[in-house]
Amino acid sequence: MTVARTCPACEERVSRGDVYCERCGHRVASPRASAPPGTRGAPDAGEANGDAGGADVHTGPMPTVEPCTWCGAGVTAGYCAACGMCQPGDRDHVEIRAGTVAGVSDRGLRHRRNEDAMAVLTPDVPLPAAVAVVCDGVSTSPHPDEAAHVAAETGAAVLADELAAGSGAQKATEAALAEAASAVADLAESTESAPACTYVSAVVPGNGGRITIGWVGDSRAYWLAGSPAATPSALLTRDDSWSEAMVAMRVMSPSEARVSVYAHALTSWLGADNTACHGHTTAITPDGPGALVLCSDGLWNYFPDAAALSDAVPEAGADPLGAAQAFVRRALDAGGRDNITVVVIAVPAPDRADGGAADGAPPAPEARDTEPNAALGGDQEGDQGGGPGDHVRGSGGSGG
To answer: Is the pTM of this model over 0.85?
Structure first.
């Protein structure tokens, strides 16, 4: 008979690779506990990634002198050394707004802290644009909140700097992925103790036109149409996940893969233990106004399809902050089992001089692989990987 492993403090289901319970933060295993062969972390541990960002971002070591909220003992890296409980953070709910861009990040209803991160900038040199990054810390890795914050802040800063220096959006996106990957890798004490996170970024011209997306992992980008005449709503990214790989190889149907215990296991992420990581970029020139949405799986677990996301919050581009707040509320109302981060960017109808399609919708975007970890010396050949025996890391959950 198979016996489910549960947390001794709250009886939440946990998996073999978990060190801490994702519901209450209680230590459930030694930090050096082994994961199943061929995996890193647990793909089925209640929840997943996440970290809130955009304001007062901390990227250094966590304080070691604050007393534990629960028992008063010393705290190291956000966890009590005595009782093992995760400490509440100061980023439980963060909201940011800059021009036509807004984001909301929330701890959710089940996690003790927010491990998602977001960063937004609006450079106006050489041309006005909005850049945004959303990252989701992998909860089965050490210090996932630091990984997400460092990646988001680094990615947004490099995007803005590259654009200001005259680089095109494609080159800027690739450079930002590479620098974010290196920054997260630098946090690791060793490949056995490597913080990790997902990453998705966007560059949106201020006057509309070609939108450029970059990503690693399973944080997503969606285009949401703002009028019946606009390009139809669509998911713009492809998850680096076990379930996506199984569907691509025709081993499972989408419905079978979604309910697998390994559905949310990642096949690619930012972290020192994934030097063979390949990031992806894509671009689309949507016709008509709308909104570009970047989000962690705390939202899309409940609204995976672009149509469902658009129906949940119609006309998101008309009020980006209100839309981001509404998306978070919808996820909380649906269960709030994970950290939730959403960035909404209003997109006007494109200026025809910038390449907008005059008649009909533009062709579907084609993703291309880039090499974010080239500076780390990893193997840069091959595809995104992800067979059941390949390098896999648990994202932490299937509930959102």
So the answer is: no
